[in-house]
Structures are given as C-alpha cells and as structure tokens.
Amino acid sequence: MTTCNELTAIVLAGGKSSRMGQDKALISIQGMPLLERVCGVAKGCANHVYVVTPWPERYQDLLLSGCQFIREVPLPSASLQTHGPLVGFAQGLAQVQTEWVLLLACDLPKLEVEVLQEWATRLDRVGDNAIAALAHHPKGWEPLCGFYRRRCLPQLLDFINQGGRSFQEWLRQYPVEVLPLPELEMLFNCNTPEDLDLS
Ligand SMILES: Nc1nc2c(ncn2[C@@H]2O[C@H](COP(=O)(O)OP(=O)(O)OP(=O)(O)O)[C@@H](O)[C@H]2O)c(=O)[nH]1
Ligand SMILES: [Mg+2]
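# guanosine-5'-triphosphate complex -> structure
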C-alpha cells in the first residue's frame, strides 16, 4: 500500500548543458553546487530522494547524504549519449514505491521548499483521473517542478516507445491538475552563463 503521506523526489541530472557550456549540476550558486541545492530542497519535501543520471561518479564528491543515485542506461535504440528528461524520468519512476513523486530539474536555483511542501499537502485532493499536478505558466505546463502519479508509468513508456520525447506533448493527452504558483520566479531555470548573473 502506498499513501499520499509518503513522497519520493526524483532529481534529473543528465542533460547536455550545451547552452551553459559546462555541467549545470556542478555550478556553484552562492557557494553551493546546484545539484546539492536542489537535493537539499527535495529532502525537505520527500521521504526518498533519487538522483537520476547517466554519470553518478561525476557527483560523488557532492554532499548528497540521504540521496540515492539511479544510473540511467541508454535506450537500446539510442545512439545519443543523453536522451532527454522524459526518458530519465521514466527510468527513475520505475523505482518509485510511493503513489506520488516530485520531479525536479537540477537547474532550479530559486526553488522554495515551503511552496513545494504546500503543494504536497494538496495531493490527497487531486482528482483520481489526473496523472500529474503541475504549475502552469505562459508557455504551458512546468513539467520539471511538480508531481506525478506513479501509475502513469505505463502511459509514459508507451509514449516513449512510440518515439515521444516531449513532456508538453505527453501531458496534453491526459488530465493534469493545476497547482497555484505564488511567483513565477521560483521556476527560473538557469540554462546559460548569462542566467547565472540573475541567480
Ligand atoms: N537524467 C537525465 N536528465 C536530463 C536529461 N536531459 C536533460 N536532463 C535534465 O533535465 C533538466 C532540464 O534540462 P534542460 O535545461 O532542458 O537541458 P540540458 O540538456 O541540461 O541543457 P541544454 O543542452 O542547454 O538544453 C536538467 O535537470 C537536466 O539535467 C537526460 O537525458 N537524462
Ligand atoms: Mg533548463
């Protein structure tokens, strides 16, 4: 039996960081590497924290006590080294035992633990047919800072097996509950060297 009181967090750290030019997870903001910061927030909200990455050894010197690595493996058909956040999420979700999982990108320097905790209190009331509870912003859903039901894994794998790689496209096919976003600022993700000046 899983309950809403138990929550797992998945932190994704496996992108190409091509716009940044160096691994974003390792960039220090106010003296703390981004991945450490995001995992700290995740620990403040969830009972179990997984970091899904193709290269756990890269992060072994970070202070990530209480977090477990899940090593992402290439898809049989993939020639690329990284295959995007949707596939990373699916590989993490396969290990989750709780009804709900909080998914977080590693490039979110302005996360607020209080907002995530308040969101988590709403999960008990999310409609049965919703696969996720996410914030909405002008460009669509924010897929990498919100909650998913564990039982959406089969739908997610179907979508991936058909070649789908876009969260927005996948989410369009199912009911998703809206979470209230007190300030858009919290979802600021740093993708470029210029973004670091704003962090
Ligand atoms: N585990 C895993 N995480 C990924 C993968 N691709 C992207 N991510 C993560 O998804 C989040 C958002 O990534 P983006 O900022 O969109 O992309 P990116 O590939 O890291 O950077 P760009 O190359 O500049 O687009 C970050 O936390 C990434 O680490 C992947 O293949 N595997
Ligand atoms: Mg990003």
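# post-check
The first strand starts at residue 7 and ends at 12.
Strands lie at 7-12, 28-29, 32-33, 48-53, 67-71, 100-105, 132-137, 140-141, 145-149, 176-179.
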